[in-house]
Design goal:
Elements (H helix, E strand, L loop, with lengths): L1 E5 L5 H13 L2 E7 L2 E6 L5 E7 L5 H13 L2 E7 L2 E7 L11 H30 L7 H41 L1
Antiparallel strand pairs: 1-3, 2-3, 4-6, 5-6
Length: about 180
């Protein structure tokens, strides 16, 4: 039996928590796209899911990394747009991808770089398209509409960016506290 759910999360950790709650109810993730998750009915609580942002890896690095995960008993569920969902049997114990503060900070830096790039790009494109206001011709109206869309996208991207900055600062604070 299959179930499709539509959800849009701006926080990858909340999304991961929801996926694990679904798995706890017996619905196991099979595929995801932006806001669309496909689940299959199975045994409740048998798997733990994690998501990871892997953008920036070459194909060879990704292949080696996925092989390492497979050797660790981790199954790749689905990969899309730099994000990958993976699962591990709950019976094997806790499942953490980044176990130390330094690796978590490095991970958040990688995500932050991508989100900041997307934010700046959309904000700049929005400004450029909106600033073309002038005569009310069809082209200028289209530019304005695209500009508004870019600004809205930049604002949406700002939400996870701010959350990532906060999490990174918390980890830096903990790191300095324990040094």
């Amino acid at each position: 039996m299959k179930k499709v759910k539509f959800r849009f999360y701006l926080d990858h950790e909340k999304e991961e928590k929801w996926i694990n709650e679904m798995a706890g109810s017996g619905w196991h993730l099979k595929k995801f796209t932006l806001g669309r998750f496909t689940f299959e009915k199975g045994e409740p609580g048998t798997c733990i899911y994690r998501n990871e942002f892997i953008s920036g890896m070459s194909n060879d690095e990704k292949k080696d990394y996925f092989e390492f995960l497979k050797d660790s008993g981790i199954t790749i569920v689905h990969e899309l747009g730099g994000w990958v969902y993976m699962k591990k049997d709950a019976a094997d114990g806790p499942f953490e991808i980044y176990t130390d503060t330094e690796s978590k900070i490095s991970y958040y830096k990688r995500m932050l770089n991508m989100f900041l790039f997307l934010f700046v790009l959309n904000a700049w494109l929005g400004f450029m398209n909106i600033s073309v206001f002038g005569n009310h011709t069809k082209i200028e109206f289209l530019n304005s509409a695209i500009g508004i869309f870019n600004v809205a996208a930049a604002l949406l991207i700002a939400v996870p960016t701010i959350k990532i900055i906060r999490r990174k600062r918390e980890l830096n604070g903990k790191r300095q506290f324990f040094e």
